[in-house]
Structures are given as C-alpha cells and as structure tokens.
C-alpha cells in the first residue's frame, strides 16, 4: 500500500527552492495483514524505513550512513533485524486507524529546520533524502501521539502534528557548527528566537552538532507554574532541538532518533521525566535497549500532558 506522493515546498536559507515530491510508503507485508506493518519512504527506487513482521523489527537504512561502511556505493542499503516483542503505539495506531482518523482532535503545526551540519553530515547534502528522513521520523512520532489515550477514556484523542514548512540551511539564529561539543541549552535558546517560529505551534531544529553531557534532544517544557515555560503552541520558546550525533558519533539507529523526538515533544506537551520507570518514552536516559513500552507514554506522562 502506498500513500499518494506528497509534494512539499522546501526553503533553502529562507528562499523557496521549489517543490519536492516525496514518496512515503505505509502498509503491511503481503499475507501478513494482522502481524506486520511497513513504514518509510522511497528514495529513487530504494525503500528506507522499518518493516515489522512476526515480532521482529527490520530496519532498512542507507549503507553509506554507517561509518564502517562509508565506501559503499550510493544507493546500497543495509537491512538489520532486532528481535522485539510488540511495538507499542506504532502497532496500535495501525489497528486503531479508523477510529483515530474519525475523531477530530488537535493538530499542531510544525516548522522543520535542518541546519547545515545536518544536511552535510547526515545526508551528504542530498536535500531530498534529508527531507524524507526527517518527515518520516515526524510521521512515526505523530502516530505515537495520535494513538495515545491521554485522558484514559479508552480512546485515542487524536492529538498530532502537521508539517507546515520545511527549511534547510536556514542559519538565522542557529549557532555556527562547532567541532567541539557545545551546550545544548545555548543552541536551543538562540534557535527559539527564530522569527519564523511565530507562524507555527512548534519549531524543530535537526542538527549534527554534538552536545555536552550526551544530550541528543533539548526542549522547553510546557509547565503551568513556570513563568519561563514554553513548549507547544506557546507564544515564546516554542522550540526544540534534536541532534543525530551523540558525542562524536552519528546515531545510526533511526528508532533512537525517533524516541528522542517523541521524548522532547512529550516535554513540549508538559510531561516530566518518569521516575524509576526506565522503558517508557519519558525516561530521563535512553539505554538503547528497547522494550515493548519504549514507544509509549507511561500513565504518569499521559496524566501530565492531559492536565495541561
Ligand atoms: Zn527529557
């Protein structure tokens, strides 16, 4: 099953560079309607993304994304498998799709920024691949939110995201790339002043800048009692930053990048960290080990976000 192609206007340094046609793919493996799903995108004719089949999760990524395999020819891909029991919200979303889509919930608009370090280091300056990568990550995280039952009434509440604008190399307000690790708050604070953020609920900056203290994502929390709080749909500080670099190494596993994005969006919606619960989206630290709950919000997080 393939979705209709999505045509997206891309802005490079604030100037429109035309429309890109992105080919997203969503569906299931033939003859495995109830035990599989496929989610990703086509770049030229190659599929990148995830295939979930019979309790196993397969990732298909660009081979030359892996440092040890840099010499691979462009277009060669690598498939790897991880044993995995259940898949939390991703899977629920597919099952609940009809119900989810028939509800009218809150859809928040996003502006996606990819800074120069991201387009260069992560995508080898291939903007189309970069856009497909970030948009498909937002799509997966959107599935998590859309399928989450925030108010515990037994039904998902259709809270989700819509991408309003995508910009690459829009360097206004973004700190210059630094070979050394920098303070993530400093990056976030300057990005949050970007003038274009007033047109959307939330701006997300994707970067390859590495941050101190192993930070891979940083955001403003939407806290009712915090005068300086920001977060989703806030007039100020409606910004978050995701880095695809951890220390000096690129994070090659897309599922960990997706979790970082979902985690920071959780803060933007008003959730705190889980205490003594390691394998939910709002755990303070990600060990890289995944459990069936890793893509879901704990009851406590859902309560935090709902009371907002
Ligand atoms: Zn956090």
UniProtKB/TrEMBL annotation:
Protein's UniProt keywords contain Metal-binding: yes
Every copy of the Peptidase M12B domain together lies at 106-308
Instruction: Note the Pfam families from the entry.
Output: Reprolysin_5
Q: Where does Zn(2+) bind?
A: 263, 267, 273
- Tell me which residues this entry annotates as catalytic: 264
Matching PROSITE patterns, A to Z?
A: ADAM_MEPRO (PS50215)
Q: Metal-binding as a keyword?
A: yes
Q: Which InterPro entries match?
A: ADAM_Metalloproteinase, MetalloPept_cat_dom_sf, Peptidase_M12B
Ordered alphabetically, the record's keywords are: Metal-binding, Zinc
Q: Which protein, by its recorded name, is this? A: Disintegrin and metalloproteinase domain-containing protein 10-like
Which gene is annotated as encoding this protein in its UniProt record? LOC108561653
